[in-house]
Amino acid sequence: MSIATVAAKLARSPGLTGEDVRALTTQAAGDLERLCEPEIIAHVDLPPAAREFLQRPEEAALGADLEWLRASGARLLLWGEDDYPPQLAAIPGAPAALYVLGEVAVLTAAQLAMVGARKASPLGRAIARDMAGGLAWAGLIITSGLAAGIDAASHEGALTAGGRTVAVLGTGLDRVYPAENARLAGRIRAAGALVSEFPPGTGPQRQNFPRRNRVISGLALGTLVVEADDRSGSLITARRALDQGREVFAVPGSIRSPLSRGCHRLIREGAHLVEEPANVLAELRIYNKNQRLVSIRRHCTNGGETPPGAGAPLDKEYEMLLDALGFEPATIDTLVARSGLSGESIASMLLILELEGRIAPYPGGLYGRLSK
Amino acid sequence: MSIATVAAKLARSPGLTGEDVRALTTQAAGDLERLCEPEIIAHVDLPPAAREFLQRPEEAALGADLEWLRASGARLLLWGEDDYPPQLAAIPGAPAALYVLGEVAVLTAAQLAMVGARKASPLGRAIARDMAGGLAWAGLIITSGLAAGIDAASHEGALTAGGRTVAVLGTGLDRVYPAENARLAGRIRAAGALVSEFPPGTGPQRQNFPRRNRVISGLALGTLVVEADDRSGSLITARRALDQGREVFAVPGSIRSPLSRGCHRLIREGAHLVEEPANVLAELRIYNKNQRLVSIRRHCTNGGETPPGAGAPLDKEYEMLLDALGFEPATIDTLVARSGLSGESIASMLLILELEGRIAPYPGGLYGRLSK
Questions:
Q1: Cα dihedral value B231, B235, B239, B240, nearest 10
Q2: A256 touches chain B (CB under 8 A)
Q3: Are A117 and A235 in contact (CB under 8 A)?
Q4: Rounded CA gap, A269 and A246, in Å?
Q5: Residues of chain B numbered 349-368 and touching chain A (CB < 8 Å)
Q6: Residue A282: pLDDT band by 50, 70, 90 thresholds?
Q7: Whose CA is closest to B271, among B228, B308, B214?
Q8: What does the alpha-carbon distance between residue A335 and residue B38 come to, in Å, rounded to a whole number?
Q9: N or C: which end of chain A has fewer CB within 10 A?
């Protein structure tokens, strides 16, 4: 039996986890093609529903899964295979197999999970976009759940900054939910990966979303919560991150906003308080000894060029922007008028310049150049 | 020599601290009236400038101090006297003596220091007022520095809630600074105390304000910072509180506001994150075993009545307000129209009802009754 067939079968086995795949692999002496053979299954202690399925699999559904894999160009990674992300393989109850659309290599790179409220405030979404942009620029992959609100803003922020992003779905990869994020899903596939443990055809089911959360936190070095009320599912993701021995980060906000309460609770429980991307990078030790950002940009889609650190040459557009900025603080609108660049690209360039310590934000949406 | 004369002399001795008064007292075998006698001073290691002053005191200035004490009705408390607040006496470098206008007993009661930006935002001032009101209602004395912004709002919040408040001045008690707070100072004197280690006639001098901060934190069980930028003097007060082994509390805010940065830094360094008065009370263990607020209202000006706890009878005005509120969330304006009560008294009553768990705030300035 091909490994793809074995993986599709194990992916559909109810309740089957990475630990079960490990036991099957040991029994099969490492021969992954043999994992579903009756004499292997017979000697391993499996969840009853999974054993039953493996003894009488739904051949039609499995055939459709394999056909969809061929047609879509997706990969199906079996727990224990080289491409299965090792940091996810290490969590308790890891998925037996992962469907992946996009670039598989991105899953083994350093990731930061960003999650938060679906009904986020405009400010919360802007903060998520800026944070994701700064962190993606520094080379972190932004991993989230493709939900409305903070999730979508985080994916978008990473993409706008030219970074990569991973979306973990609670549905099959052919059933993007919510539907309004279908276009975003397409962009993520092209600059990162869409991931799901659920076979194609799986629609949105309430019980699958908390399970999805453990994969989001399990793929990442840490989880950053941007806006979350007291009962938010994001708090579950943060708890999973803690269970998995990963870092938890949270952005504080006004005590008058109910969307700050979840973040404040996390901070009170020990989460790192995050005001800017550098706080996350410092905690994850993505700094060198001179307290300058270390380039881990190899994972960026536009990677390869020199990171514009101290003294490094700047792109022409950045020079234009710095010229337009001067040392008198100015708004983005002023900069659009002065430079002819678009507001969106100015916003992302300002973020990068801020991370480099070349400019600083001032109250009232102003930005000013720092003398060096 | 009378104790008042001794205290006035020691209060004017440059650099003299509580430790020095202790040494003098030991040398005088506990006889406070003898502390300034030449044979006592000769046998104690004192700061040179203080020794020089004590040997040749400015008699005219001392005479004026004593005359002002008589005329104003102020008290002058010598370190080691019974009325000198013991929690302040315990800090390193405590004032040798304290001028007090108002009620001396309030200085030995449980205090919370509240400090923050002079150029506070309207939201910051509203938060300071509400916090101070809730904490004062619970029986804590609110201690602050009578500065513009957060200080003034904290004093006002305590007064509006019928609580007591202490203002520690960096000037003589006859020289209220800033002048616009003179009326507030009068209200504080009537419902608490004005305190200074500086003799009457001392005007505002830059170097005296940081010294004043150690008295604010030293009088209190803990210091709550409401809004503070990165370079705020409030951070010095918070650091003094830590040095003195007291608690530090901070209110978080939007990461887009420079006035949040100081508070966020404190939280990152271990300060307790505060969203509501109950957070402070819980940390200071002003809760009973059922997690209900314990009445320490004996220090409130209107103290004596039953605290309106679970099942306790409510004042008639509170009943009117709850009737006006109903279970559909309403704004304060709506409640003014429905109840005929003033907006200000409704605001402070809502706070108390919120602390008791009878109502809850909702987004958009709405309040709703909770079913019990």
A1: 110
A2: yes
A3: no
A4: 14
A5: 362-363
A6: confident
A7: B228
A8: 73
A9: C
Query: Are A276 and B257 within 8 A, CB to CB?
Result: no
CB contact under 8 A, A252 and B256: no
Q: Is B372 exposed, middle or buried (0-12, 13-18, 19+ CB in 10 A)?
A: exposed
Q: Determine, for residues B127 and A253 on separate chains, whether the beta-carbon distance falls below 8 Å.
A: no
Mean pLDDT of A309-322: 63
Biggest alpha carbon–alpha carbon distance for chain A: 76
* Tokens found for residue A344: 């969106």
Residue B42 and residue B23: Cα distance in Å, rounded?
12
pLDDT-derived band at A314 (thresholds 50, 70, 90) equals low
Q: How far is A169 from chain B (nearest CA, A)?
A: 30
Flag if B252 and A261 touch (Cβ within 8 Å).
no
Write out the DSSP string of B116-141: --TT--HHHHHHHHHHHHHHHHTTPE
CB nearest to A267's CB, from B256, B267, B362: B267
A121 and A111 Cβ atoms separated by less than 8 Å: no
Q: Note the pLDDT tens digit of each residue in B114-159.
A: 999 999 999 999 999 999 999 998 889 999 999 999 999 999 999 9
> Across the interface, do B258 and A127 touch by the CB < 8 Å criterion?
no
Q: Side-chain half-sphere of A202: how many Cα atoms within 13 Å?
A: 21
Residue A254 has pLDDT above 60, yes or no: yes
pLDDT tens per residue, range B283-312: 887 643 344 444 333 333 333 333 333 334
Place of tokens 């600074």: B177
Tokens, residue B53: 């002053």
pLDDT tens-digit readout, A196-240: 999 999 999 988 988 999 999 999 999 999 999 988 889 999 999
Nearest to A176 by CA among A160, A196, A159: A196
- Of B21, B24, B70, B17, the closest CA to residue B43 belongs to B24
Instruction: Single out the residue of B268, B225, B272 nearest to residue A276, CA to CA.
Output: B268
Tokens (6 digits) for B272: 């307790």
Query: What is the Cα–Cα distance from A272 to A274, expressed in whole angstroms?
Result: 6
* Distance of alpha carbon B241 from alpha carbon B221, whole angstroms: 9
Q: B16 — contact with chain A (CB < 8 Å)?
A: no
What distance in Å separates residue A278's CA from the closest CA in chain B?
13
Q: Outline where chain B has alpha helix (H).
A: 3-12, 18-27, 38-41, 48-55, 59-72, 86-89, 122-137, 150-160, 182-190, 208-219, 233-243, 261-268, 277-283, 316-325, 332-339, 343-355
A273/B252 CB distance under 8 A: yes
Find chain A residues with C-beta within 8 A of B256's C-beta.
Answer: 123, 127
Interface test with B, best of A129, A229, A254 (most B CBs within 10 A): A254
* Angle (deg, nearest 10), helices A150-160 and A122-137: 40
Tell me which chain B residues have a C-beta less than 8 angstroms from the C-beta of A275: 255, 260-261, 264
CA-CA distance, B137 to B307, in Å (whole number)? 10
